[in-house]
Amino acid sequence: MKKYLIFLVLILSHFSVYADGVKLSCIPKSPVCENCSEYQTLFPIIELSSNTESLDIEADESEILNGKYLLNGNVEVNSEKLFLAADDIEVSSVDSSILATGNIRFQDESYLITSDLLSATIDENNDLIATASNANFQDFGSGLGGANGYTESILKTPTSVLLKNSTYSLCPINENDWLIDADQIKLDLVNNRGIANNATVKFYGIPIFYLPKYSWVVSGRGSGFLAPHYDSYRESNQENKSHSITVPYYFNLAPDRDLLVALTYMSSRRFIYEGKYRQLIAPKISPDDEDSLWSIEAKYLPEDKITSLKRWLVNFSDEIDLNDKLHFSAQYSRVSDSLYFKEIARSNIDVKTLKSHIKLSYDDEENNLSAALLSEDEQVVNEGAPVYTRALEGSISKTLNAGTIMPVQVSLVSTKFAHDTKSKTAGVRTHGNLGISRQLNIEYPIIIPRASVAITNYSLKNNPNINRVVFGSGLDIDFTINLPTSMFGYEANHRITPLISYNYKAKKAQGNIPIFDTTDKYADIITFADLTSGERYTGLDRITNANDITLSLESSYRAIDAIDDDKDLLNMRIAQSFYTDDEVVSDTASTNYETRKSYSDIAASIDVALGKYIISSSAQYNPDTSKIVKKENSLTYTSNSRKFITLSVSDEGTKETEKLYGAYPLTDSIHLFGALDKTTSTGITNSETTGIAYESCCWAFRLAHFKTNDTSGGYNYSTGLELVLTGLGSTSSPLKRKIEGNIPGYSAKLR
User: Fold this and answer.
1) Does residue 739 carry a pLDDT above 70?
2) Buried-state track 78-101, b at ≥16 Cβ within 10 A, e below 16
3) Which of 614, 682, 691 minimizes the C-alpha distance to 648?
4) What per-residue confidence (pLDDT) applies to 41?
């Protein structure tokens, strides 16, 4: 059975249609062959004549006989509609017909034809009609990658092309690795469809599929079968391997909307029905704005062979700009059960929860005003645990006196928290903050004092209400200087920023406050950003007491011509905080404070971006032990999405992890790709990906193998493959998404 399924993958990939990577666009685009170094044509393209009144004719000999021009020897005829070269050409002045014989080269606005016999006429609509026999043809009008082939006869009109006993391929000239061989092919240029009768698809000369009638899209995106996806895997409780095959069909409903349906057969689970609809919604304010997109996806397994349960997935998303200030966002993600990804999708097994939300946001940059309404929900999947969700949240923020030396920030956010576990404390948290800062009238250094007050109310279910008021103040003294210099051969700006920050926040016991959304930034490695942020915790359920001084130093070299997305050539950072209080607000439930040293560990980092190389290193240094207690290092080389490598090593003190991923081209057409995620402190491989891909102008193939830890002491293995014929097949498969998820930076689109 497995062998038959593999064969089915190969043959069905030809009974498919080019879908341009199933991209949506409000402006349809012609396909482009990205992997072709040269664009070859049957003969060099000639610039057509601009003379609308007569023909431009060159010939060794000519004579006029009974109203016909007889041209012999190296004849060339050029007009606004065609170019024709041949050994002999006969031009009739009566019916404007042309008959050419011997070494013919014919060109109109979109087609090239070579043959030994060709006739052309102009009909009553002043349209050109050309007929040739035993001809080679090429559709150069569709751009790079236009179709070509050989035919016993070709009839070319402005709206259609009729080919008899013909071949058809989108491979380069004289490199027809695959082709369609048919009794008759009709290319409807108006409706952008090709129809072949008694068509045989041949791959390297070997017939692999036959269809009595076959239809495809001549140019651009269109409806039809996409490249199937095959996968082999092993169920956790079975020794023998199982397999799955997905056959997708793509509906090109319009340039801005499409529908993808698929049938997946899992030998261990039975059939899965899938569908995904997408639609672009053009911006209403400015044509320069990005289009909004909404989509809905559903998968349904009527009866799982193993569990006898119905298994399903629903995923809906919508992003739309209602006007230039108002944005609507919605996401709904649900699966039938927590083991769906592990047992059915066999992907996303590291996801803990699925988030759903509805959000309406308002952003008025001109008046420095923003507001939002949010409602969210989460479903626990895989090995996740229930968490608090925002049943409803409203927020508003306004900056007064923006752009002056004394801006005032006012914000208010009220959130209703819910939890699936009924015993968990729930309720409404309302938090308001008023902050003011002022830049002193001193040129150097820049001194900015600030003050704030935060008021929080907890209206709890089945618990007393809690009120919290925390006053804060601070002072920033910035000694930044900028110096022109050079670095690594680049003209650069050297910015040196010594910064002294004083932070004060009143000490407030908070152990009786529930923790809805707060985490400790210092739980993993302490970074430069953590120390200089002035707040230890994320969220609002804990506000750190402070009477501290933080010293930081940043030195950066940035190329003069760098743009926003460019990294600094060299960036070095170091920071440390000094505490006057040996107690800090704790994020442990029912605990007010925990002890700490009078100073923090030192956070330091260095980042180098030189051409295609990026080197990053971060460390947390303990002054008491004079040791680095935590560190993260990474090295990245990126030439393109087919040639890169990234190595990262992290040491969290009790856990060491290594990650390696990249791709390497063996030739212009063949490349390897892979990824390894391993916890070296325990020797456990979290995930492993290996694969090879072949890409050319004509066809592409990819084979990938996956190994993942199933959290029960064993591993899951799976293998996927896909074959794509350029112009007849396209990739939009689970294999593509799985590879890109495991290998950041890799583009899994077969070209």
Assistant:
1) yes
2) bbebbbbbbbbbbbeeeeeebbbe
3) 614
4) 84
**C-alpha 496: how far from chain center:** 36
Tell me what pLDDT residue 518 has: 94
Q: What is the pLDDT of residue 285?
A: 47
Strand blocks (E) in 66-147: 68-78, 83-92, 98-107, 111-122, 128-139
Joined together, the tokens standing for residue 576 give: 């440390």
pLDDT band at 484 (very low <50, low <70, confident <90, very high): very high
Read out DSSP for 362-425?
EEETTTTEEEEEEEEEEEE-TT-----EEEEEEEEEEEETTTSSS-EEEEEEEEEEE-SSTTS-
Instruction: Indicate the helix (H) or strand (E) that contains 444.
Output: none
Can you tell me which residue has the tokens 């016999």? Answer: 117
Partners of 334 in the beta sheet? 314
What are the tokens at 322?
A: 């209602």
Q: How confident is the model at residue 712 (pLDDT cuts 50, 70, 90)?
A: low
Strands 490-505 and 481-487: what pairing?
antiparallel
Residues 739, 673 contacting (CB under 8 angstroms):
yes
Tokens of 126: 């002043």
Residue 21: pLDDT band (50, 70, 90) is very low
Q: Residue with structure tokens 């004579």?
A: 63
Three-class SS state of 445: coil
Residue 444: C-alpha distances to residues 73, 75, 476, 498, 502 (Å): 86, 82, 12, 12, 18
b/e sequence 238-248, b meaning 16+ C-beta within 10 Å? eeeebbbbbbb
In which band, very low, low, confident or very high, does the pLDDT at 192 lie, cut at 50, 70 and 90?
Answer: confident
The number of CA neighbours under 13 Å toward the Cβ of 747 is: 11
Can you give the pLDDT at residue 25? 40
H or E element in which residue 260 lies: strand 257-266
736's enclosing H/E stretch is: helix 734-742
**Rounded to whole angstroms, what are the CA distances from 737 to 20, 286, 361, 715, 720?**
16, 32, 30, 20, 12
**Rg of the chain over CA atoms, in angstroms?**
34
Beta strands in 407-563 (DSSP E): 408-418, 427-437, 446-460, 466-478, 481-487, 490-505, 546-559
In the chain the first and final C-alpha atoms are separated, in Å, by 31
Which residues 6+ apart lie within 8 Å of 302 measured at CB? 270, 271, 273, 310
Burial label, 42 (beta-carbon count in 10 A; 0-12, 13-18, 19+):
buried
Residue 145: strand, helix, or coil: coil
Classified as helix, coil or strand, 12 is helix
pLDDT digits (tens, 9 = 90+) for 265-307: 999 999 999 999 988 876 544 444 556 778 999 999 999 999 9
Place of tokens 């979290």: 686
Residue-by-residue DSSP string for 357-371: EEEEEEEETTTTEEE
Give the 3-state secondary structure of residue 46: coil
Residue with tokens 């009768």: 197
The Cβ of residue 431 has, within 10 Å, a number of other Cβ atoms equal to 19
Pairing, β 602-610 against β 257-266: unpaired
Match 């927020």 to its residue by tokens: 395
CA-CA distance, 211 to 364, in Å (whole number)? 59
The domains of the chain are located at 40-219, 440-636
Extended beta strands in 8-55, E state: none
- The first and second tokens of residue 501, run together, are 């920050």
Report the alpha-carbon distance of residue 42 to residue 174 in Å, rounded.
Answer: 9
- Check if the beta carbon of residue 429 is closer than 8 Å to that of residue 467: no
State the pLDDT confidence band at 221, using cuts at 50, 70 and 90: low
Which residues does 304 contact at the CB level (< 8 Å), separation at least 6? Answer: 269, 270, 310, 311, 344
**Tokens for 90?**
């006969």
Give the residue carrying structure tokens 């109109």.
Answer: 108
Pick 408 or 34 by higher pLDDT.
408
Measured at the alpha carbon of residue 15, what is the angle toward residues 9 and 17, in degrees to the nearest 5?
Answer: 115
* pLDDT band with cut points at 50, 70 and 90 for residue 143: low
The number of beta carbons lying within 10 Å of the beta carbon of residue 319 is 17
